[in-house]
């Protein structure tokens, strides 16, 4: 892992363990793969097929947020179901969401709540939100690729300075909340290039390069010394057979300003950045930090050339004996409301709303009935998601749960249907695309019979 420090802050001008998020960016090995930057370049050389720059931003809420308290309020249900929050009207007639989302309510015509995701496998991890597949499903040799790996493989990079598949996924105390997926049977070159991290005790081989600022990224000698220190796994497939060529190209990623500029939030218009609200660098127990500025970072990465950006945001598992469901909702919901509305507003103002798709979701929903701790437990039977952009028919709700929010009464939706919609938004051919796994078996982007959500197309 290569740690790159940004500009010193105005407050202290120094780098230390408490360095601000704007000045602390990690650029390093592929998540779960340990591949170096030359591997990224190898992937580019193998798949120069991209044309139109369409993209996906995948925002994962670790821990399973409450569907009822977010975007599927049940005001007519008994008190032990409806909870402490009232619904508010939106600018779409007949659509109501939680009162703690006033900004989104005023622009609901730009969003699509999905209220009936009904095939969560119930595991506390990011796997289904990254791949669409259930963890226990039949695995091809090498495993299922993350969705961004398919996009990277089939469409290639937009330019040589920014990997097509990137992540802003923090390593979390609960390990599975910080995993952005892998390249699966497509191979390590298509795994997400993770741009943030956490110095985990379990990863002593992470290389930390101190003192390299954004201004010094063009110092090729320093950078070469850094690359010389990276751990490189043995490659029996010939991936690194042109190491000198790809090392040179890899250096271009860091010595070209495009990626560095995208990661440097000090270059963002302060008024635009302020829309997103204030982030916190504090990790939420075993979850991720509530870094709302990463929503802006994701948009900047897309503008710089990324095709698929995944990020984990805060921690949403609040059902313990401390009874924090409603107090934590009052803390987290307004921040998510501000950040998500800012992101979608940015996309529309920049003319990206037809090209960039956004999905926000967690691994499952929450029990309709409030438990003895005044919280909600795990509820895989139904959960929710929020979509925006991608040229989709926004301003409508997909699905309806029953009066108590227990199950899908109309239009159950599968995770893979959401991914099928996202793939179609970026121009992938669901029916005509098949890729052979390492055993020579043809595989598809989604299971056969799965189609995009037709109401959105």
From TrEMBL:
InterPro entries of this UniProt entry? Alkaline_phosphatase_core_sf (IPR017850), DUF1501 (IPR010869), TAT_signal (IPR006311)
What name has this protein been given in UniProt?
DUF1501 domain-containing protein
Q: Tell me what organism the protein belongs to.
A: Gimesia panareensis
């Amino acid at each position: 892992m290569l740690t790159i420090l940004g500009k010193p802050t105005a407050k202290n001008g120094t780098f230390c363990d408490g360095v601000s998020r704007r000045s602390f960016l990690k650029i390093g090995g592929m998540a779960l793969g340990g591949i170096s930057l030359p591997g990224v370049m190898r992937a580019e050389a193998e798949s120069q097929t991209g044309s139109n720059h369409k993209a996906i931003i995948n925002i994962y809420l670790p821990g399973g947020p409450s569907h009822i308290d977010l975007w599927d309020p049940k005001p007519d249900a008994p008190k032990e179901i409806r909870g402490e929050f009232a619904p508010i009207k939106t600018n779409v007639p007949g659509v109501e969401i939680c009162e703690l989302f006033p900004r989104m309510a005023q622009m609901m015509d730009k969003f699509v709540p999905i209220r009936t995701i009904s095939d969560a496998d119930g595991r506390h991890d990011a796997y289904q939100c990254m791949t669409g597949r259930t963890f226990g499903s039949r695995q091809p040799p090498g495993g299922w690729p993350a969705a961004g790996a398919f996009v990277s493989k089939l469409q290639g990079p937009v330019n040589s300075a920014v990997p097509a598949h990137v992540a802003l996924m923090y390593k979390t105390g609960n390990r599975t909340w910080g995993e952005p997926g892998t390249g699966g049977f497509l191979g390590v070159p298509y795994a997400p290039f993770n741009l943030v991290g956490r110095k985990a005790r379990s990863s002593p081989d992470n290389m930390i390069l101190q003192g390299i600022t954004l201004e010094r990224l063009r110092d090729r000698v320093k950078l070469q010394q850094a690359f010389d220190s990276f751990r490189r796994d043995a490659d029996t497939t010939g991936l690194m057979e042109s190491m000198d060529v790809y090392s040179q190209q890899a250096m271009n990623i860091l010595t070209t300003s495009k990626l560095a500029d995208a990661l440097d939030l000090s270059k963002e218009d302060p008024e635009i950045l302020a829309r997103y609200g204030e982030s916190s660098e504090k990790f939420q127990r075993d979850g991720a930090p509530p870094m709302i500025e990463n929503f802006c970072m994701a948009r900047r990465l897309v503008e710089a050339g990324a095709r698929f950006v995944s990020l984990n945001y805060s921690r949403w598992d609040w059902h313990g004996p401390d009874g924090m469901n409603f107090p934590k909702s009052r803390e987290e919901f307004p921040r998510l409301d501000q950040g998500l509305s800012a992101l979608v507003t940015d996309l529309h103002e920049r003319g990206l709303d037809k090209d960039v798709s956004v999905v926000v979701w967690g691994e499952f929903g929450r029990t309709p009935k409030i438990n003895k701790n005044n919280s909600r437990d795990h509820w895989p039977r139904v959960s929710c998601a929020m979509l925006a952009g991608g040229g989709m028919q926004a301003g409508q709700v997909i699905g309806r749960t029953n009066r108590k929010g227990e199950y899908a009464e109309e239009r159950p939706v599968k995770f893979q249907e959401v991914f099928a919609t996202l793939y179609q938004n970026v121009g992938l051919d669901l029916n005509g695309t098949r890729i052979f796994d390492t055993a020579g078996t043809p595989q598809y982007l989604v299971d056969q019979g799965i189609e995009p959500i037709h109401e959105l197309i």
